[in-house]
Amino acid sequence: MLTLVGTSYQRAPLELREAVAVEGDALPAVLRALAERFGGATVLQTCNRLELYVPGAQERAAVLDAFATGAAVDRAIAERVFVLERDREAVAHLYAVAAGIDSLVLGESEVLGQVRGAFSAAVSAGVDDALLSRLFHTAIRTGRRARTETAIGRLGLSVPALAVQLARMRVPELARARVLVLGAGEAGSLAARALVERGVGELVVVNRSLEHGAELAAALGGRALPLAQIGAALGEADIVIGAAAAPWPLVDVATAAAARAGSERPLLVIDVGVPRVVEPGVAALAGVAYYDLDALQALAAEHHAERAGEVARVRAIVDEEAERFVAWWERLRVAPTVAALGERAERLRRAELERTLRQLGELGERERYHVEALSRTLVRRLLHEPIRTLQERGAREVYVDVVRRLFALDALEAPERVDGEPSGPDAVP
Fold first, then answer.
1. Catalytic pick from 31, 47, 296, 338?
2. Is the pLDDT of residue 330 over 90?
3. CATH number of 2-156
């Protein structure tokens, strides 16, 4: 049915997640490489996870081969960090992600948009299929349901919001603080807005696209600087939020050291980028406190404890929705066999009915009606249990095989069709 090959903050440290991260421009190539091999694909990438969804029961090595080719990543590293899940487990995992119970920040508010964005990217690349479409639409529905029926998302936390909370803890007087936000995308925008709402003294946005950075800064009453001035901005900052989607660090150790030369002011760096926006080596500089996503896990654990009571309720919703999805898929899978069984029975019924009527000679309309009704009733009652078993029992692949063998549905030779006889899933009343 479905194969998931993925990794997350629970399985790999940040430096390994960085090594397999897919750059935005490379995503269409990754999707095409997977779809050409498996007939469809969706890639879910957030700051804490990278997951590849493809239809069918695929081998982990085959998925990683296609991924490594499309993403141009080190195949050996991918082998170390990616794990395999299939079928119901893969469905339940995606539902848990969408519901916010498989996140660094329990109940985070961003992940639903990221799930939606992942499927939108697949649609734009033309690599979605019916299975993945239903999977991701139902995942979004499950995520919404979890937040409606439980309190898992009541505080609306996100990774950027967690970063801002850390900033407030380390720099209590935000009204005097100068904040430098690196990146004007979703994460950078969320962090900047949260800081402004908490009364930060000054906001500066640096983005690879000055135009986008200026739009965000203007909306929040801050100012934007071009990337070339990042060193000067760093030298004036008290807090740095790294949230850019860049394939390499925007701030290296040498740049940070030059900006900090002669300064005694403490500097708090919170990097939520994958790959990281600020080189981790800046932590060795005097007066610099450096936190990346892995370092945020301790703070996230406190919030996890606050919401832990809701996890069981959300898990029940996830399990219910996963069972519903699997039931849909199995009904879809057995439909051809049910249709073939009905068609086979109807062909036999019509053939035997015509033969019997010819042997009985002239019958009145009433007699013919009763003979016809008798044949239909016998067929319907004989097939009722086999069809019910196919549609309702577990391990349906076993039952499908048995039914096809018992009723010779795959036989090369079949009874000749009687002219005008019906066929298809509606043939048996």
1. 47
2. no
3. 3.30.460.30
